[in-house]
Amino acid sequence: MPVTTCVFDAYGTLFDVAAAARGLAEQPGQSQLAELWPKLAADWRLKQLQYTWLRAVTGDHVPFWDVTKDGLDWAMEAAGLDDPEMRETLLALYWELPAYREVPEMLAVLKARGMKTAILSNGSPDMLDGAVDFAGVRTWLDAVLSVEDVGIFKPARVVYDMVGKRFDVTPDQVLFVSSNGWDAAAAAAYGFHTAWVNRAGEPMDRLTADPAHVLSDLSGIPDLAGTL
Prior knowledge:
Number of strands: 6
Largest sheet: 6 strands, parallel
Order of helices and strands: EHHHHHEHEHEHEEH
Distance between the termini: 8 Å
Number of helices: 9
CATH topology of the largest domain: Rossmann fold
CATH class of the largest domain: Alpha Beta
Number of domains: 2
CATH architecture of the largest domain: 3-Layer(aba) Sandwich
Strand content: 5-15%
Helix content: 40-55%
């Protein structure tokens, strides 16, 4: 069956998670952060993800905001940054992450071609609402789905089940798009058509399935969806 529904991960896929650290580093008086922000941003994101995986395994679920704060605390300590004001500013900026530049046009084209569109994210509903509204993309989304409805983080299969329940579609009618190789791989194993947005040119993860398509950004998603 042809693809009718395009589903996107949020953080790192539609929204630039490095923007919080980069934006603060560019402000006056942030010379120390200016030297450290790429590592800080990378460590923050990695720990944020690692904590979701560990909590999914142990069943010790908390809202995504909690692992976001814990990840930042680890990253700041690793960087030798003991600055409560910086911490609060970085956390505030995380609610104002910009969309990647190709996102609005890409979503608009999908909608113009009759596709259903959605976010499926580890983010909590309030975080996702903030990100969607700040980026100005709500008009092109049919749904914003959060793992809080099932109480476990991706890549648990019950998270991907949410798409079929919301849109009444089978996996082969869905194109799932993520910048996380592990997420795209898990979605491929689930049965979705998958696209990995590999912005950093990373190697393929060694998992049980591989994403069928690898792109450098999201601009090619509408044409890809039309061929499936």
